């Protein structure tokens, strides 16, 4: 009898546990109330320069995919960069050595997506309008060095907060990186720098640029309007 | 517990000597500049009296040309 | 609790130290603190960005260099530079890594009994000065020579010219720009009487059509190519690629037109034929601003020692010129060039349409050409006939490959016939230079001596006994390399090499001097669009390394020229630049003052009334125009630009039965010139670890070659073995192969021919005959 009681108690506990979990999960799924979401066009709220560019998977903020299973961390992110802020090298083999841009690299790197072969999400370019990709991004065909080097990276850029709980500042230059969400949201973004609130869009309202990184300036624009 | 930082200007060519002297004084920490004749001095004393006597000791240093205070903090004593 | 309190006190101490440091930084900009302690205090906010022109090609991108703890740690494009507007290429971004190769030369090395012995800088400089003096006593002034570079800063080139031409009294001053820009110079001089482009990079923002003449811009001038692509995206500008080999540029262009090697001469004349025939010639422009001339033909190719050539221009009229063009009707030329009649006519419409602004670009394809001066003239002809010149968007633009090919070699004039202002043959020019230099005018000889190829031949013959090589690597870049390497190794030759890394050139040196590189010293570069840019010293040079300028000043002082070289160590760059700008005074070439160059990303000469001149010869922009017309080509005595009658002539060595392939050489995106810097940048070396030979897929199939297979290339001058590349980065036409020259382990210049343009003396690295076999 005593044993039956214990079994019954556990069944009851398990059942209530499942019910509570289920309820909280479902209510968590509903999300916050945002009635205007559907009526917004992509143009209206993208005050930052980088947001005005071509449709971008990251722009539909409400539908940003959260898949943490294959997410990178910053260590992996920095592996194919010579220093903080250098253009990353290409980590995968390339079939076409001659073409680039829209017909080639941007097929994947404009919108991102999961690549079964590498078990990874494609990083999204923050500057898809620059189509001479291989000007800055080169593959790594050999692991050997010609001669050893003394070069050392500088110290890692650190995001500062004015006060505890203040929004962190932007530790890097915005040159070619005005589209914040291409690197800070979505499944290809490194874990540590993923933003918790991509739907808020107007990033620089709260996040300011570290002074010594400079502004984007009049970067790559025509000078005869 | 006052903690104070200073910019210490050594007498010309005496940066290394001054650094050694400062490091030998208790409650003092010093940090030399590499390409300019200048040291940063941080004093960490237990009370105002001790700080005042340290100040006198510092002023007697021959290799120290000029001392400029930059910041001072008063931390609570509750250890 | 105690622990917490201790950590809190630590924190406060760090804060105190940090605020002191901040104050110190404000008081003494650039102050640095001992690394370990600084790291304990704080790590952020200490990165200091300083501006410089990029170290590599002639585009002259503005870069910002991040300096931390006295080391260069990061690079970004300078958004305030009108050249690149914040963008760099992969070489520029990683350029600072080239400062830190483990095998940097840090102390002088002197060859004793076949091996190098380390010595002090003072001893090495004493030795150089005494050797130079002894050579002059034993063999005469013309037995000593200096071979410099378009990577020389302006002060480097200036002191070289002053020391050799002004003080020692020999015209044995040459630079590697002879191998790279000489045809562009003679092209400018023959057509306009003044060197360097009339337009500027801003033309890109106005032009509707870009025509690239044998210029793989996507790889060689990627930042400018990005500006072209940007204009296509924003304004629908068209890019036309004229080439002998399919490249990334061809793929990116709207239209890629292939022609056979050397036939660009015929193609350009055919375009002019069409322009005349269709009535697209800008009659009033041509009547007012152009004259017609023809020169000697059948000039030879300079293959024999002591070859001499002097052109004898003859005035002709428009009728004669028209008659000459009759031979270049599209239907006649199509067979020779391999370009269809339709494409020739299409090109003519592009240039001829009065509503379209056209910009032509070229670099080594046209300059490294046994008729290099001619093809430069012919492209100017097209622009002159249509009047599409010297106005925003209408611009024949000769690109350069080195950061200061224009600034140093062409403007300072470190070529045998040149002076900082003018030429040695001209008495007034010699007097002008002698006055500023403070030397008797008789010191400067009135006859030019050896151009680069001939200078190395003279070294072989023994006419030259002493050679000082700075910032260049001729033992990789000279054509028909073996002859000149053997020459340098001969007995009774003394070679000094100033460089930053061991190279095949330091291997032949008797003394190796360690040089301070780029931002380890102060200097100035001048880029393709007449823009002079300044950079300060940002980091210390390693070991005893010394700037090339100061090396020469030290030697000059030891040779008894203290008076002429009395510069102060702290301010010598400023003093030299000030002295140099005196040579160029006047509206035609006034140089910007140093204070301007320090405050902004360079300025363009002629710098008149505090303003750069963007379009020369156009009265609206150029204050040197004085004829009251809209245009004034004031480089010529009659104020008129010259349209030259230049025929097609074949290349000196064409494929035959035995050597049945054309060999073309060139660069790749990742490596710059001989790779002595870029190969020491891990990301670049890993991207492009070794040279290769590109073969057309059909040829590869016939020869049973696949990518990676070893191939034996043989010319009449040598043999090398390289891996094949089929259908990769570039595809040469059938019967042609392409090899990049950056790899010192596979020296393609063992095979190339030392034929050169008789007018410019620039060798042709793009055409010779080879045999291809599977190894």
DSSP summary, beta strand count of chain A: 2
How far is the first residue's CA from the last residue's CA of chain A? 89 Å
Shape of chain A: elongated
What is the CATH class of the largest domain in chain C? Alpha Beta
What is the CATH topology of the largest domain in chain C? Rossmann fold
Report helical residue fraction of chain C.
Answer: 25-40%
Radius of gyration of chain A: 23 Å
Give the overall form of chain C.
globular
Total of domains of chain C: 5
What value does the Rg of chain C take, in angstroms?
26 Å
Outline the biggest β-sheet of chain A.
2 strands, antiparallel
Q: Total number of helical segments of chain A? A: 4
The number of distinct β-strands of chain C equals 29
Strand order, main sheet of chain A: write it out: 1-2
Low-confidence stretches of chain A: 31-48, 50-59, 214-225
Task: Write a short abstract of this structure.
The complex is a heterotrimer of chains A (225), B (79) and C (775). With 225 residues, chain A is mainly alpha-helical.
Describe what you observe in this structure.
The complex is a heterotrimer of chains A (225), B (79) and C (775). Chain A has 225 residues and is mainly α. Chain A has helices at 2-30, 74-79, 105-109, 181-184; strands spanning 114-115, 120-121. In chain A, strands 1-2 form a two-stranded antiparallel ribbon. The longest helix of chain A is centred in the first third of the chain and has 29 residues, at 2-30. Chain A is elongated. With 79 residues, chain B is α+β, with helices and mostly antiparallel strands. Chain B has one domain: Lrp/AsnC effector binding domain/regulation of amino acid metabolism (RAM) domain (Alpha-Beta Plaits), CATH 3.30.70.920. Chain B is built from two helices and four strands. Chain B has helices at residues 15-24, 48-59, and strands spanning 2-10, 28-32, 39-44, 64-74. A four-stranded antiparallel β-sheet of chain B has the order 2-3-1-4, covered by helices on one side. In chain B, a hairpin with a 6-residue loop joins β2 and β3 (39-44). Chain B is globular and about 35 Å long. Chain B starts with a strand and ends in a 5-residue tail after the last strand. The mean pLDDT of chain B is 81. Chain C has 775 residues and is α/β, with parallel strands linked by helices. Chain C has five domains: 1-43; 47-100, Phosphorylase Kinase, domain 1, CATH 3.30.200; 109-180 and 403-511 and 544-566, Rossmann fold (3-Layer(aba) Sandwich), CATH 3.40.50; 188-284 and 324-399, Dimethylsulfoxide Reductase, domain 2 (3-Layer(aba) Sandwich); 661-774, Barwin-like endoglucanases. Chains in contact: A-C, B-C. At the A-C interface, loops of A face β2, β3, α8, α9 and α25 of C.
């Amino acid at each position: 009898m005593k044993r039956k009681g214990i079994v019954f108690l556990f069944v009851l506990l398990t059942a209530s546990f499942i019910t509570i979990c289920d309820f909280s999960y479902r209510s968590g799924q509903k999300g916050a109330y945002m009635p205007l979401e559907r009526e917004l066009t992509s143009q209206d709220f993208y005050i930052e320069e980088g947001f005005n560019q071509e449709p971008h998977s990251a722009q539909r903020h409400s539908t940003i995919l959260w898949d943490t299973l294959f997410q990178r961390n910053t260590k992996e992110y920095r592996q194919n960069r010579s220093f903080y802020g250098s253009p990353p090298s290409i980590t995968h083999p390339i079939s076409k050595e001659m073409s680039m841009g829209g017909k080639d690299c941007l097929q994947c790197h404009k919108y991102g997506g999961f690549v079964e072969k590498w078990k990874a999400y494609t990083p999204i370019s923050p500057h898809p309008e620059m189509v001479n990709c291989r000007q800055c991004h080169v593959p790594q065909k050999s692991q050997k060095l010609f001669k050893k080097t003394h070069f050392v990276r500088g110290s890692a850029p650190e995001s500062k907060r004015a006060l505890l709980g203040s929004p962190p500042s932007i530790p890097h230059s915005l040159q070619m990186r005005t589209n914040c969400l291409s690197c800070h949201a979505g499944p290809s973004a490194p874990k540590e720098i993923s933003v918790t609130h991509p739907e808020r869009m107007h990033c620089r309202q709260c996040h300011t640029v570290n002074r010594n990184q400079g502004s984007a300036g009049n970067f790559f624009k025509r000078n005869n309007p | 517990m006052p903690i104070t930082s200073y910019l210490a200007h050594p007498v010309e060519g005496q940066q290394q000597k001054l650094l050694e002297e400062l490091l030998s004084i208790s409650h003092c920490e010093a940090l030399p500049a590499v390409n300019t004749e200048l040291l940063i001095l941080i004093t960490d004393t237990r009370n105002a009296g001790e700080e005042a006597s340290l100040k006198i000791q510092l002023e007697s240093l021959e290799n120290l040309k000029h001392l400029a205070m930059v910041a001072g903090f008063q931390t609570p004593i509750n250890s | 609790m105690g622990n917490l309190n201790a950590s809190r006190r630590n924190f406060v101490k760090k804060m105190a130290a940090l605020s002191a440091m901040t104050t110190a930084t404000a008081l003494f900009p650039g102050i640095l603190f001992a690394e370990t302690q600084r790291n304990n205090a704080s790590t952020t906010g200490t990165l200091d960005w300083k501006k410089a022109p990029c170290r590599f090609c002639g585009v002259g991108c503005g870069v910002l260099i991040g300096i931390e703890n006295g080391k260069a740690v990061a690079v970004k494009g300078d958004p305030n530079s009108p050249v690149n507007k914040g963008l760099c290429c992969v070489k520029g971004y990683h350029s600072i890594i080239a400062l830190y190769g483990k095998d940097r030369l840090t102390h002088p090395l002197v060859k004793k009994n076949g091996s190098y012995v380390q010595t002090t800088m003072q001893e090495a400089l004493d030795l150089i000065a005494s050797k130079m003096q002894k050579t002059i006593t034993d063999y005469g002034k013309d037995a000593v020579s200096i071979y410099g570079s378009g990577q020389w800063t302006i002060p480097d080139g200036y002191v070289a010219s002053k020391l050799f031409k002004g003080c020692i009294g020999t015209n044995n001053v040459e630079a590697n720009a002879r191998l790279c820009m000489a045809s562009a110079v003679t092209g400018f001089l023959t057509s306009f009487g003044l060197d360097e482009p009339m337009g500027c990079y801003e033309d890109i923002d106005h032009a509707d059509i870009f025509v690239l003449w044998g210029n793989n811009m996507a790889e060689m001038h990627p930042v400018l190519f990005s500006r072209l692509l940007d204009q296509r995206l924003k304004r629908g500008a068209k890019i036309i690629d004229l080439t002998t080999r399919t490249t990334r540029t061809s793929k990116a262009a709207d239209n890629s037109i292939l022609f056979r090697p050397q036939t660009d001469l015929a193609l350009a004349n055919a375009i002019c034929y069409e322009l005349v025939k269709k009535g697209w010639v800008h009659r009033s422009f041509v009547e007012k601003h152009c004259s017609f001339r023809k020169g000697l033909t059948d000039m030879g190719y300079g293959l024999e020692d002591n070859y001499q050539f002097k052109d004898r221009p003859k005035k002709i009229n428009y009728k004669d010129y028209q008659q000459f063009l009759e031979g270049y009707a599209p239907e006649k030329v199509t067979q020779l060039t391999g370009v269809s009649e339709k494409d020739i006519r299409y090109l003519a419409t592009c240039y001829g349409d009065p509503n379209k602004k056209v910009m032509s670009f070229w670099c080594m394809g046209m300059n490294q050409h046994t008729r290099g001066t001619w093809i430069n003239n012919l492209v100017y002809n097209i622009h002159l006939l249509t009047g599409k010149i010297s106005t925003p968007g209408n611009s024949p633009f000769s690109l350069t490959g080195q950061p200061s090919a224009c600034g140093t070699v062409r403007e300072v004039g470190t070529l045998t016939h040149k002076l900082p202002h003018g030429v040695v043959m001209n008495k007034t020019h010699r007097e002008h230079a002698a006055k500023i230099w403070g030397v008797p005018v008789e010191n400067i000889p009135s006859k030019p001596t050896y151009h680069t190829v001939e200078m190395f031949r003279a070294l072989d013959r023994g006419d030259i006994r002493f050679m000082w090589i700075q910032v260049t690597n001729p033992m990789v870049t000279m054509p028909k390399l073996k002859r000149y390497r053997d020459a340098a190794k001969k007995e009774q030759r003394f070679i000094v090499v100033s460089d930053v890394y061991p190279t095949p050139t330091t291997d032949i040196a008797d003394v190796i001097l360690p040089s301070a590189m780029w931002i380890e010293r102060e200097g100035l570069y001048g880029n393709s669009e007449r823009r002079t840019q300044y950079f300060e010293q940002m980091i210390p040079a390693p070991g005893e390394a010394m700037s090339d300028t100061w090396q020469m000043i030290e030697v000059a002082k030891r040779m008894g020229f203290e008076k002429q070289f009395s510069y102060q160590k702290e301010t010598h760059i400023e003093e030299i630049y000030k002295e140099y700008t005196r040579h160029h005074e006047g509206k035609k070439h006034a140089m910007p003052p140093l204070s301007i160059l320090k405050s902004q990303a360079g300025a363009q000469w002629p710098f008149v009334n505090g303003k750069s001149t963007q379009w020369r010869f156009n009265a609206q922009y150029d204050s040197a125009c004085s004829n009251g017309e809209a245009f004034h080509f004031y480089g010529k005595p009659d104020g008129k630009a010259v349209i030259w009658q230049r025929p097609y002539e074949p290349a000196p060595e064409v494929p035959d039965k035995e050597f049945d392939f054309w060999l073309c050489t060139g660069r790749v995106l990742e490596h710059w010139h001989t790779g002595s810097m870029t190969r020491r940048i891990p990301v670049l070396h890993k991207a492009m670890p070794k040279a290769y030979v590109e073969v057309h897929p059909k040829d590869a199939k016939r020869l049973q070659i696949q990518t990676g297979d070893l191939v034996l290339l043989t010319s009449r001058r040598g043999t090398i073995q390289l891996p094949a590349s089929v259908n990769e980065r570039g595809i040469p036409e059938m019967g042609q192969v392409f090899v990049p020259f950056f790899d010192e382990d596979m020296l393609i210049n063992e095979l190339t021919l030392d034929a050169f343009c008789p007018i410019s003396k620039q060798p042709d690295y793009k055409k010779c005959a080879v045999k291809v076999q599977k190894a």
